[in-house]
Write a structure and sequence with these properties.
Layout lengths: L4 E4 L2 H4 L2 H8 L8 E10 L2 E8 L3 E6 L6 H16 L15 H10 L4 H12 L3 H14 L6 H4 L2 E8 L1 E2 L11 E2 L2 H24 L3 E9 L7 H14 L7 E5 L8 H9 L4 E3 L7 H6 L6 H13 L4 E8 L6 H14 L3 E6 L11 H9 L2 H14 L3 E6 L10 E5 L6 H8 L4 E4 L4 E6 L4 E6 L4 H24 L1
Parallel strand pairs: 1-2, 5-8, 5-15, 6-7, 8-9, 9-10, 10-11, 11-12
Antiparallel strand pairs: 2-3, 3-4, 12-14, 13-14, 16-17
Helix pairs in contact: 2-3, 4-6, 5-6, 8-9, 8-17, 9-10, 13-15
This protein binds iron/sulfur cluster.
The site of iron/sulfur cluster (SF4) has 11 residues, from loops.
């Protein structure tokens, strides 16, 4: 925790800086820091000056078309780097932004990769290895991104099942620990929403490119309930334009042969079986309530049932884990040879049960980059390439989450939701929707109510609101 940040300056500039300051000072660091930002105008010259601890100063002058907020961040980070040269922010001034969006915007302007890398270093202070990663990911994604005329005809749909068999200690997602009747009631309402959404999309000539059934833990549903849900997806969402139907089977203890058969027969060709770690002691510590052996069994069962696209998620920086535990997990996952591997860096939000968040992050923090390198080498060693990445707040070592996949096994949905070049309609409690305007790629976000009860009351109103915006965009 940073001790005593004093941040003075125009509120519109300082608001975005607090996050960067927190990221710069590692969890557990004790530091007194004062940052003073001033904007200036001298004749036709405008800019921002930054002073840290009353001594270190950087001035950034505003050229035409430049963004003062970005310049302020650059000035502050340059001061901080002078104050502590050994401390680096791998993603420079970027905190919440998806780095690949910036890369794509520059590539779309006709710039070459070298030029883009230069801009990432100069204007965003991004380290060269991260710039190279963002360029590689953006390059791979290009084949999947829609042109404006395609984005006016194709959408994706996220179907949310916000129930889990138990609550993992690091999780901040508002999932309920669901049971029979409750799940049944939820499923009834969700089916109504899928039907209404599917019809509304069809009426507007829109087809569904990808369907992602996520959670929570969708496989908490019984075999019959799962079959019903998949049937509704086929009845109202899936068409010959649909290229992907994913089902998150996050917790292996919820899987059995019958369910996997139902999923496979319903064309849910991509499935995610997530160990997070293969270290038994850690699984217990984070309340995962399943064993490493159950992960292996579920994985082989899924293969036997015909799944040829299996993803696995792992988390770096789990409590009590050092590089050796991460290496063990990577070795065990490698033996299974999944088709894609999603590597998350631990991000602890207020809603998670891991109470001492600072200790949890600082314990693993120093080894974060080493863990990430090991994961990258394993994924590349298995023949995978990084295909999507995103960053979160309060993430271990200010790192990123990266999805690796074998060629052709990338999740199209993951790319669309992260890159925001396609509208994604959420169905279910806690589901988010992103309505994209293909004319300028501007975006409007919608969030469904978090509790199932509030969702039952509001889903129709929420759907009408989203369709209203969509109609306006299609008309204009
Ligand atoms: S299975 Fe996923 S959504 Fe459910 S509690 Fe664990 S981390 Fe959270």
């Amino acid at each position: 925790m940073v001790m005593g940040i004093s941040l003075v300056g125009p509120p519109e500039l300082t608001q975005a800086l607090a996050e960067m300051l927190k990221a710069f000072f590692p969890a557990g660091a004790e530091q007194e820091i004062s940052v003073e930002l001033r904007t200036y105008s001298r004749g036709d010259r405008h800019g921002v000056s930054c002073r840290v601890n009353g001594a270190i100063e950087h001035v950034a002058e505003l050229d035409q078309g430049q963004d003062l907020k970005r310049l302020s961040r650059v000035a502050v980070l340059k001061c901080l780097q002078e104050l502590q040269p050994e401390q680096k922010l791998p993603w420079g001034i970027l905190t919440g932004i998806r780095p690949t969006k910036i890369v794509r915007r520059l590539l779309d302007r006709g710039m070459g990769e070298r030029e883009v890398a230069g801009i990432l270093a100069r204007d965003y202070l991004i380290q060269p290895d991260k710039a190279a990663l963002a360029l590689e990911v953006a390059g791979l994604q290009r084949q999947y991104l829609l042109k404006p005329e395609e984005a006016s005809k194709l959408v994706s749909v996220y179907v949310g099942i916000p129930f889990c068999p138990s609550r993992c200690a690091y999780c901040s997602f508002p999932s309920a620990v669901g049971q029979g009747m409750e799940l049944n009631v939820y499923l009834n309402v969700l089916e109504q929403e899928i039907k209404a959404l599917g019809r509304a999309l069809a009426d507007r000539g829109l087809a569904v490119q990808t369907v992602y059934i996520g959670g929570g833990t969708p496989t908490i549903l019984s075999t019959q309930e799962l079959a019903r849900l998949l049937q509704r997806c086929h009845d109202y969402l899936v068409s010959d334009k649909t290229v992907e139907l994913t089902l998150e089977a996050g917790r292996p203890e919820t899987l059995d042969r019958e369910k996997l058969k139902v999923m496979s027969e319903a064309g849910a060709a991509r499935v995610s079986i997530n160990p997070q770690t293969m270290v038994q002691r850690t699984l217990e510590r984070i309340s995962r309530n399943h064993t490493a052996d159950q992960v292996r069994e579920a994985f082989w069962l899924a293969r036997e049932c015909g799944f040829e696209n299996i993803n696995m998620d792992i988390i770096l920086g789990l409590p009590g884990e050092t590089i050796s535990e991460v290496m063990f997990t990577l070795e065990e996952v490698s033996k299974l040879r999944p088709d894609s591997l999603t590597v998350h860096a631990l991000a602890l939000k207020r809603a998670s049960k891991l109470r001492d968040r600072t200790d949890a992050l600082s314990e693993a923090g120093a080894q974060g980059p080493q863990m990430q390198n090991a994961a990258e080498q394993t994924a590349r060693g298995l023949g995978m390439r990084p295909y999507y990445l995103y960053r979160q707040k309060q993430i271990l070592n200010n790192m990123e989450n990266i999805g690796y996949a074998m060629a052709g096994k990338e999740s199209v949905y993951n790319i669309q939701i992260m890159e925001e070049r396609q509208s994604v309609f959420g169905a279910g409690a806690s589901a988010a929707s992103k309505i994209v305007n293909p004319a300028d790629w501007s975006l409007t976000n919608f969030q469904h109510p978090k509790s199932p009860e509030a969702y039952y009351k509001r889903w129709q109103e929420s759907l009408a609101e989203r369709l209203h915006l969509l109609d306006r965009l299609l008309r204009d």
